[in-house]
From TrEMBL:
Matches recorded under NCBIfam families: tyrS
Presence of keyword Manganese: no
RNA-binding S4 domain mapped to chain residues: 357-418
Broad class of the protein's primary localization: cytoplasm
Enzyme Commission no: 6.1.1.1
Gene name, Swiss-Prot/TrEMBL: tyrS
Location within or outside the cell: Cytoplasm
Gene Ontology CC: cytosol
Residues engaged in binding ATP: K252
Annotated source species: Noviherbaspirillum denitrificans
GO biological process: tyrosyl-tRNA aminoacylation
SMART domains in the record: S4
Protein name: Tyrosine--tRNA ligase
Amino acid sequence: MTDSQKLQTNNTATEPLPLSDSVQDALAVAKRGVDELLIEAEFAQKLARSEKTGKPLRIKLGLDPTAPDLHLGHTVVLNKMRQLQNLGHQVIFLIGDFTSMIGDPSGRNATRPPLTREQIEENAKTYFAQASLVLDPARTEIRYNSEWCDPLGARGMIQLAAKYTVARMLERDDFTKRFKAGTPISVHEFLYPLMQGYDSVALQSDLELGGTDQKFNLLVGRELQKDYGQEPQCILTMPLLEGLDGVEKMSKSKNNYVGITEPGNTMFAKLMSISDTMMWRYYDLLSFRSIAEIEQFKKDVEGGRNPRDIKVLLAQEIVTRFHSQQAAEDALADFNNRAKGGIPDDIPEVSISGAPIGIGQLLKQTNLCASSSEALRMVEQGGVRIDGETVSDKGLKVDAGTFVLQVGKRKFARVTLA
């Protein structure tokens, strides 16, 4: 029996509740921008029951603290959580401190190195503080899955593992590909979806959110809830946000991310670097503007309006959300100043010695380029300036003094060379 068939067999014999206008409105909010909502009819009934009884739904999102900082890709699902929170439901922000020690195999073509307890604790410290920039912390239940996973012990883990077969695990696309390719799959990786599913049992979740790459794990939670005699959760998956390159999903490891705690000027400049086509994807997944307003922007662009103007509005909205309106206005002014060849106000000051020094070494020592070879490539491409004057000589020796060194459009340093 397929997952879809199993999902459809959960019909109850009770008469369905009528869907009021407010329930249908809530359903529309839940569905905006989603990839899938499984099963929609079940979730509509959960909403109707919640309205009738006054009991809020329990809505779960789990994140493993695998890195210390959240980026805009993480906020796609956090935004949906906030929308559901605003409808009056109980959202649960689950930090996977236990599951981080296993390592999520979703979308991986190799075993993920598990984190140490120290790394997990350090990362977890900042997660909820950053998530609170999107969620209302006063109305958010924060939990750690070590609360119920640690007490399971070896006996409980074996009993849990007995509820799923290897054949079912190999239905996962990433496991299947690795198995066929002869790429090793560690036994402990099979535990990950089981433990994530057990989280739903422990929290008695009504709805679990996740990225599209989490669908298998979310379905395991649904199945385990049935085994434990609970009403199965519904599942809502959100699309994965592509990074600034417009190709790979946003990731710190791929350096195509916008961190939500980065300075406003940096966030603004990064968002302005996305393509005019990718801009609409970011609007759909990140903006709080209405669908009608975004559609009007698209018509404006088709009618001849400069896409840059629309991109500025998006960048300002995001910077305002994570900083302030004033920060967004300052970021726009800074961006325009840089575009005209101006020098930003907040550039780092660097003091080094060794004059006269070759331009390649100078750029490396000021950390504006990772290596001398990269620095010389930038000179060849006309991307290096001293006090606004383009450097064209790769053999240039720079004398002592104080000057502004610039690489590309966004890297600056006020250098004192002795």
